[in-house]
Amino acid sequence: MRILIAAAGSRGDVAPYTGLGAELRLAGHDVAIAATDAYAHLVRDAGLEFRSLPADTRGRGAGTGKRELMRTAAAFVTELGQGFADAVDDDTELLLLSATTAPLGWHLTEATGIPSLGAYLQPTAPTGDFPPAVTGTRSLGRLGNRAMGRFALRMVDRLYEQAVADLRARLRLPPLAPSAMRRRQEQADWPVLNGYSTALVPRPADWRPGMRVVGTWWPHHDPAERLPAELEDFLGAGPRPVLIGFGSMAGGEGERLSGIAVRALRRAGLRGILQSGSAGLAADGDDVLTIGDVPHAALFPRLAAVVHHAGAGTSAAALRAGVPAVTVPVTGDQPFWAGRLAALGAATDPIPFPSLTAERLADALDRVVKQESYAQAAATAARHMATEDGAGQALKAIEELRA
């Protein structure tokens, strides 16, 4: 089957699909990933065909205010909608749509007749079990959580209004509001595969039947790939270090964050690795090393703890490695995942990004490294995750659809 995976957003919104796509290709499917040009190398390194989506997330990770976040998202969606249809060719037999691309992909399905599946990295459907992932962690009770979940979806639909109108006009489809299309998909029980672990988010009982939680999709990683020699030397030169990184978040704040990180590490008496990321973290010294991109799967099991922004992928990778965390959520769904890690006992209570200080970080690091309960909780979750096969479950669902 010729499968197109459409994913858009930051690196964490794209990378998991490279592992999923590689597994589908091993099963005999012809797989392409449509993403923004910044991540073409991730797709091609996984041995998959890359198709360009007309939007760019680079330089958009710095803002943390709600109004700025909404303006950034609206501009991104408008760009995405302007050329989304170009990524789908006549030979495509199945669309796998991320939460970001589904509100556009549904209309392509209507126009072309190509079947589609949702392939989501975070829970989006309303439930009484918890509030929407994009609104934080404070429960409003079952009725309140469901109401807030529906409100969050209405906000998403508003965000896509212009892009959907333009796309439908281009596809020569009659006008249809994004909210009307969403209701149509829900009434048809459109299938959605949620690619995260039930260790973090068990499937809510009040979801419709077509919503499944299948396990995490891991970014493609060549097992033969080795860590850089300088990093290997540092890892072998003393006790397990702590990794500190903020992924694609906190652009332009590298100097401040680097100072906080180094002071916190030394106050807690720990060795540290700073991962530069979009923030540009950097520091030198016998007890600290600065690195660029390295595979989480190769590095995380060799750490004492991870300090991170609680993106879905990094949160899952730390758990998979059985390594406890200190989370510093910045925006979006990050407070949700940070709260999930803390509820499992595998992380300290989150430190909100605006409240981050060297003193608070040092105190959290001291607790998470010295109190064995955090590592034990992470190890328990890792054992649970090892029983899941997210890519295998996705393959099974695809085969069922074809049958």
TrEMBL record:
The keyword Transferase applies. Keywords: Transferase. The keyword Flavoprotein does not apply. Pfam families: EryCIII-like_C, Glyco_transf_28. Gene3D superfamilies: Glycogen Phosphorylase B. Residues 3-64 form the Glycosyltransferase family 28 N-terminal domain. Residues 285-390 form the Erythromycin biosynthesis protein CIII-like C-terminal domain. InterPro entries: EryCIII-like_C, Glycosyltransferase_28, GlycoTrans_28_N, UDP_glucos_trans. PANTHER family: STEROL 3-BETA-GLUCOSYLTRANSFERASE (PTHR48050), STEROL 3-BETA-GLUCOSYLTRANSFERASE UGT80A2 (PTHR48050:SF13). This is Glycosyltransferase. The lineage of its organism: Bacteria, Bacillati, Actinomycetota, Actinomycetes, Kitasatosporales.
